[in-house]
Records
---
Amino acid sequence: LKEEKILPCKQKVQIEYSTLKTFANLGTLKQLCDFYNIYISSGSNDENTQIIRGVNQQNEAIDKYYELWEYLKNDSKVEFIRVNKEKDDVADIDIEKALLGTMLTKQQNCPLLADDRVLQALVLNEFSDESFPAFGTDALIVGLLQSKKLSSKDSLDSLLKLMGWRYRFIVMPPELLKE
């Protein structure tokens, strides 16, 4: 077996990002930095910055998720309801999860607020005689505007944000087009 040669201590060494991650995961990054003078490419630094930014965005999303559910759990106007399934209801668990909103709408005999146009269509077909069996965030924003619970500026900003998130089929109210 041929003996591996390594550079002597305190030599200058260019190390790629993936190798740095390996040493960090092994818990030996400090020893590596003590042994060599490390050079890191700007590309590796950019990659690390992007990863950190991505992790920070994920952490923000997780924080918002917990904040949302804490708010809902502590609001006395929010009621968590179990869907009562009948034997002939959907057997496939993934399809069942997707249809929970429609099942609950039917069970509670109340409108569905959902941005999924397919779910809206299912409920609209089932409850065609109702005035508002299903609607989306865009319709709620317009309703809040019309009832003066949301200003024109806030309504416009919200609808434009939805459009920026690629919400389809939003019809902008004429009064907001003037803004």
Note: The first helix runs from residue 17 to 26.
---
Amino acid sequence: SFFDEGNQFSIAAEAGAMSRIFKYKGSPNLVFYRELDRVDGEKEYRPLVTAKMGKPGRKILIVSKSPNGRMYAFAVDIGNIDFKSGNLRVVNLSKLEALVRIGEITQNIKPMGTYNFRLKGERTRFLVRLAIATIQESQPKLIEDRRYAVDKDRLELIVLHQDTTNPKKIGYTSFLLGDD
């Protein structure tokens, strides 16, 4: 649950989950609370995680959980004019620099950085090469190298994040988003 101008809103916030696209125009920080029932039957709200929402706009909220149980929340602004159908956006939420290749284009993406890859193909759906590496001690360390299905008619997002079992590694999650 979270509160806005005294009104309570409840959403599911599961570790590793991503919200749907929504338009946000509230406070720059959004605090989520765990709703508990006290012994006397009253509701108690304990802060669970705070998401820095930034400026108003179209957002996706990503929630993750570390091995020690601490929750993290990140808001990703997807409303930029350059993120339309036919693009694949890579967001690096990890603490490591990443080298990402989509098709023939390779891009170095700094921590908390973003890059839009323009999808080029003769058909709507096609396969491209996806390669992801971290930069460790000035050398790339490959974490993924495979063929990846893309769709030019959809917004696609790949989120790079810290591996919760090993902070020296990164993992990734890919999402197809509605283009609304």
Note: The chain is about 0% helix and 65% strand.
---
Amino acid sequence: DTSMGCNHPDLQDALMAHIRENFPVQDYEPVSCFLSVGMKQNMENGTVVLDQKGAVDGLVQELGISKCHKKVPLPPGAKVLPFEGKSSDSFRKQHQSKVAKAIHLQGCNPSIAQAVSKLASVACNPGPQHMKLLDNHLLPFLNKPQTGGNGIRFSRQSCHSDKNGKDPAFDEKGNISEK
């Protein structure tokens, strides 16, 4: 399976033609979920909203995360210092598994990036305080109730567009511009 996003239909068509020449391709239908990322497309408005509510719900159920909801992914001023002891293989693997899931979830929840980065930095030798930060702060933060407008929204209008709505990186045929 693969997914592609492009705001230049001619480029997308050319790439798909090239792929079809070299690989057997079946185009079934618009994608609603890809790698546990939900996709809601509004063709009329030219928008796509990505969210990971399904992945978060699965993680909440799998790990039995408490129903208490945190307002921040780590306590303010939390220091994630190296563990002085030696963690067991099973403890390290459990910590690494949870951090890996959080890494995946930060794709549509960038507010956890700093916390995930800090907790990933000690993944080779995590201590009990690191697991406590994961279990009592970061993962419950992901379990917070979502309100309208959750997810990441992309629109047809390129953020690099000029005043005429054209992307200066591409010429009128969709080729990469020499400018």
Note: The radius of gyration is 21 Å.
---
Amino acid sequence: SVLRQGNWTHPVVIYRKYSIGWEKSETSKLVAAKNGDVNLAFPSEDSSSTGLTYLRLRSNKWEKREFRVPTPVVYADMIPLSNERTAFSYVAGDRAVGTTGTAQESAVHFVVWTGTKWTKPLTITSGEQSPSFAANIEKTRDGTIHVVWTEHLSGSIQTTALWHRQSRNGGTSWTALAI
């Protein structure tokens, strides 16, 4: 729904899937871009695939882009880089990561929607930070992209470390891991 002149429009379905990961606090992201676009990112899956879904409202029309990966996406975050380019951090791994904390293997990844295609995803964690949770992404005024995520004890939801990496070239290369 949209609030126009003090009245809400009727709600419309913008996406439907077997499973949508939508918990505002950790698994999904809603961002308004400077150009007026509304961007949504969240994990999704159906009977044949799993991945990251990106929806963008531009000129009153919803656009859908799906990025499919072999392991379930359990956390997603994003930042608009320009009118067309949008960067995403996501955690993919054991399906249990988001609910029970029993994941043995999960990793933080970075990918960009260029406006026409997805870039090749980069894994920005190593096995040392696994299981990884709740990857957050942000861009500073100078264009530096920062990703921060948590590491948990194996088999637990207890956070034991916060990790950080940054990129000064749009995500092509990343600094060394920092705790």
Note: DSSP finds no helices and 14 strands in the chain.
